[in-house]
Amino acid sequence: MRHALKLGVLLLSLASGDVAAEPIVFGQTLPYSGPTSGWSTIGKVQAAYFKMINATGGVRGRQIQQLSLDDAYTPSKTVEQTRRLVESDKVLFMFGSLGDTNQAAVQKYLNSKKVPQIFIFAGGTRWNDPEHFPWTMQWPPTFKTEALLYAKYIQQSHPNARIAVLYQNSDFGKDYLKGLEAGLGAAAGRMIVARASYEPTSPTIDSEMATLASSKATVFFNATTPKFAAQAIRKAAELNWRPTQVLALPSASIQTVLEPAGLDHSVGIISSTYMKDVQDPQWASDAGLKKYLDFMSRYMPGANAADVFNVSGYLAAQALVHVLHECGDDLSRENVIKQATSISNLELDMLLPGIRLNNSTNNYSPIGQLRMMRFDGTSWKLFGEVLAE
């Protein structure tokens, strides 16, 4: 089923004699259906954010029109929908599309057309390659940066660990595995005692988890997407396998992953973040959090403001509005990518203190800092300092 979120363009009243400025039209593909549809809330919260921006005058008097189409997390569908957006809808650029394998399927096409592919929700190292793909840039920290941080944590806190890794058989999972191996260095061969991969189309990962549990590993690295992350946490409990669990950031959602897995099974899980946790009382009087919660109550009533996917979608939307403001009156594709890749010390409402967006023509990855966190059964608790690769 094809879904489309379209933000209506608010035109200035013709009766007043004013001429409406051309809207800023951009495209996006997300999984509104299929096993990873939990991620679709990213596009929904962004649609709401741009609605708010339009209601207050838009960006420099221009309305924003987001065309967000369903690709069901299927690369062939991503290609079909992206071509439709570029060739039929004539979008100025692509923004916030999701999935490493999905975006890899359209990366060469978009670069050949010189269509900016910006703030994509994909963490592979391939996205920070301005020399070969100057029209593509990512949003989240690279999976390698994240996995290097986990490797450092494991070596410091569990120096004699036996590690089991579950990863998706795609660029997503393979980058996590490579990052962990690189971070462990010479110790990787000794410390990683079991590896198992699964296909994105697999119904379950029960057999893979049984294999990993039989290794009697003391640390479990869960490098999976939300559906499988929840299955893995629950299956570990069913198997009475109680390792220290490290969970990939894209699946570190209490609502989408930990609650379905069972909060009692999730206590003690380690992950990382660059965002404030809505449920953490330390941010109760934080101005940025108050602004975010006000937006959610007004423009996303009934949605869960604490969902990390809503927070990350909100942040990326804020960053895009900054870029469009910086473009001024030059809304060429060349200027859009120029402004998107020259961000300096940008603070956003829901970024953790000390973490800011920075990139350049030589470094297309805007988020290079993270903090570790541990789930206590109710919320994520930060520990350690802000760390960078």
TrEMBL record:
Please name the PANTHER family in this protein's record. Answer: BLR6548 PROTEIN (PTHR47235)
Q: Which UniProt keywords apply?
A: Signal
This protein is called Branched-chain amino acid ABC transporter substrate-binding protein
Family of this protein:
Belongs to the leucine-binding protein family.
Q: Where is the Leucine-binding protein domain?
A: 23-376
Signal sequence bounds: 1-21
SUPFAM superfamilies tied to this protein: Periplasmic binding protein-like I
